[in-house]
Write a structure and sequence with these properties.
By secondary structure, the chain is an all-alpha fold. The chain has one domain: Four Helix Bundle (Hemerythrin (Met), subunit A), CATH 1.20.120. The chain is 71% helix and 0% strand. α2 packs antiparallel against α3, α4 runs antiparallel to α5 and α5 runs antiparallel to α6. The chain starts with a helix and ends in a 27-residue tail after the last helix. The C terminus is likely disordered.
Length: 196
Amino acid sequence: MATIEKLLAGLASEAPAPASGSAAAAVVATAAALVQKVARLSGKQWAEAGEIHGRAERLRLHSEELIEKDSLAYLAYVEAVRSGQDVAGAEAETIEVPLEIVRAAAEVAALAEQSGARGNPKLRPDAVVAAMLAAAAAESAAFLVAVNLGETADARLDEARRLAGEASARLRSPGARGSAGDPGRGRARSAGSRRP
């Protein structure tokens, strides 16, 4: 819990970083963790659950690294602008890191979709929320790629927008349905919420 408290305190602070890129990466890591939960509890129903769990774990760890990497990329860019040295290289990193976040988010969204369709039906809401989080993170990071490119035409922006679109489209697939009309396990509540 200390790590997330530190991240949230940093996001809320006056410091230039961490900021929105780190927040998006944290959301991807959270989505991947939910996919891990679904896969871990779907071994009886789903032969590939172990493989999906492993892929989700790798994506979670990579996304955790991207939280810090995004902050470092931005701070390096600010320093490069101040010093006038290697501005182009530092600027490229501020584009590459959010693009990596989009890529990770799109992959997590795909795993979440599979988990919702093939995993333990009682955990379908968790898979759907994982897909929602991943799609939101992909859209957010793609927006940051566009901002850091200055909306100029670029293959990296095309890739980011395509992957974000694919992640969002997964929410409309049959495997991802399960919120309003087909909740999957009745009322979905956080484990910490208790109501009489």
